[in-house]
Amino acid sequence: TDGAPQFGAAPTSTWTPGDTVVDRRACFVPVGAAPGTYRVIAGFYRGQERQTVFDATGQPLGTHVELGEIQVTAP
Question: What is the rounded CA–CA span in Å between residue 49 and residue 33?
Answer without folding.
Answer: 29
